[in-house]
Amino acid sequence: MKSSILKSTFFALALTAGSSALHAETLRFAAQGDVVSMDPYVVEEVFTSGFLGNVYEGLIRRAPDLSIQPALAESWELISPTQWRFHLRKGVKFHDGSPFTADDVVFSAERVRAGASDFKNRLSADTKVVAVDDYTVDFITTKPNPILHYTWANWYIMSRSWAEAHGIGAPEKGGEDESFATLHENGTGPFVLTKREPGVKTVLKANTDWWGKGTIPTNVTDVVYTPVPNAATRVAALLSNQLDVVFPIPVQDIKRIDATPGAHIEAGPEVRTMYLTMNQWKDTLPGYDVEGKNPFKDRRVREAAYRAINIDIIKKKIMRGRATPSALMVAPGVNGYSPDFKRYPYDPEKSKELLAEAGYPDGFSFTFQCSNNMYVNDEAICLAVSNMLAKVGIDAKANVQSKAQYLKAILAPNMDFGMAMLGTTPASLDSHIALYSLHMCPRVSPDAPLWKMDGDKKIVAGKSNFAGYCNPEIDKLANEILSTTDQEKRNALIKKAWTITTDDVAYIPLHQSWGAWGVRDNVSLKVRSDNIFDWRYVTIKK
Fold first, then answer.
1. Measured distance between the N- and C-terminal CA atoms of the chain, rounded to whole angstroms
2. Helices 299-307 and 348-357 sit at what angle, rounded to 10 degrees?
3. What is the largest CA-CA distance in the chain?
4. What residue spans of 197-347 are helical by DSSP H?
5. Predicted structure pTM score
6. I need a surface site. Which of 74, 296, 471, 534 has the fewest CB within 10 A?
7. Helical pair 431-438 and 487-504, crossing angle rounded to 10 deg
8. Contact at 8 Å (CB) between 511 and 314?
9. Are strands 73-80 and 539-540 parallel, antiparallel or unpaired?
């Protein structure tokens, strides 16, 4: 009965998702959350960036194996240690028919570093971007940067003329203040937005004028995306052939889908690392009733929380074995990862000793912010962690919310959390970006004073460091890593940095989950370990 109700509910939803008849090559897919904004610079979030990558394009892109490929730039070269030259693709048009030129790259470089852009770490403030001619752009840095373009796959290029015609200025904080770019787009990519109803549906069609047409296998002509927060509803819709692709699939449903005629599972390990962030910013820990006290400022307390978590139970019981416990904030496959690092062992008695030593023999309490539609089994993991912490006297009061409310709670200016669970995928697939964004002392520029949590969000260094972790030695190492061109020396610096952050217990890494996609048997696609859904590789059999 429950399954039929869920199916009927989704069927009613599907009817409202598009009144016109679906084509045979229409891709119908669902995930647990919605695109935050169509503006490509307001929120760095995997699903949103991945979705927009089918509409917008960068100078480079990542192939299914995550290798770097040319996109809007056909080639690039190092003119000098501090000067990169990118040769742009000719004949490319934006969706409004206007030509793509170097001026659009210059504009995009300006806007991505302006206002409350969430992608400021893609290009340093002191990097000069010069249009040599209509199809050549130079990037001039103050120091050598051997991985300058490694993070550019989701730095999407926008049209200057379109932005100016529609009064689109600097990105607003968190995308909360709408501009024309919030609900509209003008990319160069293979798909064009035709209808956008936030929280309900997003409809797109193939770009018949796309420059890359004929170079990739897709035969998809239309895309209908429907956000479906409830996992059981998503699975029921897949099995009843109301959806073609569903992500993520709860681990407990994988065997059932694989055993059902007409559907199957595409799965593989992710490069995203799930972790717990502990609020070291505030003088009073949110949810703690002792004014002026923040236990997480004490390294011993952070280690106590770490040792209270039984990661093997989470892997076995919640993830059904489909997770790889992690000791680092980067996954295998990311440059700088090393199996030499080991997790702090699960040891609740040691946790209690550390708490007593730090002055909290009876434990303490805090607000534990949790999402229920951002990650695989996120709610279940949060509740399990809360129960594990309770066994050593730490009262982690779990507050489970949907993605939109969750992000609003943990981001500036609110930062209303004692602990929160997040996931990180280094855009460069290199340890530097994880150190730069997650571990550097939060500043509006690498040499500026510490950020004061004033909601400005013009933060660059440490932009994802919601913990407020700050060790000047890491700042120094991160800057040195960025400009070091000798690979052996660079990797030694990375290992030194990870040794320091692990000893500091800057965060509590959990695991890399194994992504599982539910797919109809007449659909083929390529699953990427960074969870980006590239529609260019989708084919649908009639």
1. 31
2. 160
3. 68
4. 231-239, 254-258, 299-307, 311-313
5. 0.79
6. 74
7. 40
8. yes
9. unpaired
d(CA 274, CA 425): 9
Q: How many residues does the chain have?
A: 542
In 3D, which of 165, 230, 219, 226 has the Cα closest to residue 6? 230
Neighbours of 164 (CB within 10 A): 11
pLDDT per residue as tens digits for the range 338-349: 999 999 999 999
Single-letter amino acid, residue 57: E
56 phi and psi angles, rounded to 5 deg: -100, 170
Q: Among 96, 120, 95, which Cα is nearest to 41's?
A: 120
Q: What does the block give as tokens for 165?
A: 């015609």
One-letter amino acid for residue 171 of the chain: P
Q: Cα separation of 231 and 295, whole Å?
A: 36
- The answer to whether the bond into 449 is cis (omega within 30° of 0) is no
Please, are residues 117 and 171 in contact by the beta-carbon 8 Å criterion? yes
Residue pair 530/45 in contact (Cβ under 8 Å)? The answer is no
Residue 459 phi, psi dihedral angles, 5° rounding: -65, 140
The residue type of 198 is P
How many whole angstroms separate alpha carbon 416 and alpha carbon 411? 8
- Among positive and negative, which fits the CA dihedral 280, 286, 291, 296? negative
Strand 364-371 relative to strand 419-424, pairing: parallel
Strands in 460-522 per DSSP E: 508-520
Which of 411, 420, 416 lies closest to 305, judged by CA? 420
Q: Which of 394, 418, 388, 415 is nearest to 297 (CA)?
A: 418
- Exposed / middle / buried, residue 125 (Cβ in 10 Å: 0-12, 13-18, 19+): exposed
Residues facing residue 129 across a β-bridge: 139
Mapped onto helix, strand or coil, the DSSP state of residue 396 is strand
Of 11, 7, 10, 525, give the one whose Cα is nearest residue 268.
Answer: 525
Measured distance CA(110)–CA(424) in Å, rounded: 26
**Token pair 């590789």 is at which residue?**
537
Structure confidence by residue, pLDDT tens digits, 272-283: 999 999 999 899
CB 134 within 8 A of CB 98: no
**Strand-pair category, 523-524 with 539-540:** antiparallel
Interval 250-298: pLDDT, tens: 888 999 999 999 999 998 889 999 999 999 989 999 999 999 999 999 9
CA distance 472 to 478: 10
Tens of pLDDT, residue by residue over 376-387, are 899 999 999 999
Interatomic CA distance for residues 474 and 456, integer angstroms: 24
Amino acid at 289: D
Contacts of residue 507, defined as CB under 8 A and 6 or more positions apart, other chains included, come to 275, 276, 277, 278, 329, 438, 467, 469, 501
CA 46 to chain centre: 3
Q: How many distinct helices (H) and strands (E) make up the chain? A: 15, 20
* Kind plus residue range of the DSSP H or E element containing 206: strand 201-206
- Whether the bond between 413 and the residue before it is cis, its omega within 30 degrees of 0, is yes
Amino acid at 94: F
Q: What does the pLDDT average to over 182-193?
A: 98
CB 522 within 8 A of CB 245: no
